[in-house]
Amino acid sequence: MNKIVMAVAAVAFVTGAVVVFAEIRDAIYVGIAALSLLFAWFMIETARMLRQKRARFRTRPELPLDELERLFSTRTVTRCDLDRFLTRVERATDIPKGKLRPDDRFAVELAPVRGWEFDDGLNLLPLVLQRDFGGSIEDYDLGSDATVKTLLAAVQRAVTMQTRQEQE
Known about the structure:
By secondary structure, the chain is mostly helical. It folds into two domains: 2-55, no CATH class; 65-167, Non-ribosomal Peptide Synthetase Peptidyl Carrier Protein, Chain A, CATH 1.10.1200. The chain has helices spanning 2-21, 24-55, 65-72, 79-93, 125-133, 148-167. α1 (2-21) runs antiparallel to α2 (24-55). The protein is elongated and about 70 Å long.
């Protein structure tokens, strides 16, 4: 985060210096060029961060949905709901769903790379799961001991409650 603040400050300083010492038109060109460089730098850093995060799972085999279904051994969640759940976790963590395992902890194995905590989709995962499966936001707590399995259990409870309410 500090790198981004420093880069924005540098762009503002350079643009301000050009405004003072040159024409406004030149300052606009310099500002556009500086913002383009800042955007390119941000994209490169994002790609590097994703590579670093996915490196933790490089040696782990990617399993098809059939094997994931057996691995997670869900009784009350349908295959479709399991696939939706794993897809939501995949999007939030940037880890392919075939590489996710029940004991993966959100605070350790699936945690954001240091320095990218505020730009990681993991913070929005509880809201997405609440919207898609129901239940309360507190049901999807990503505390220090939360695993993919415990989050799936929360989804199971929410789906079961929703099914009961629909039957009444």
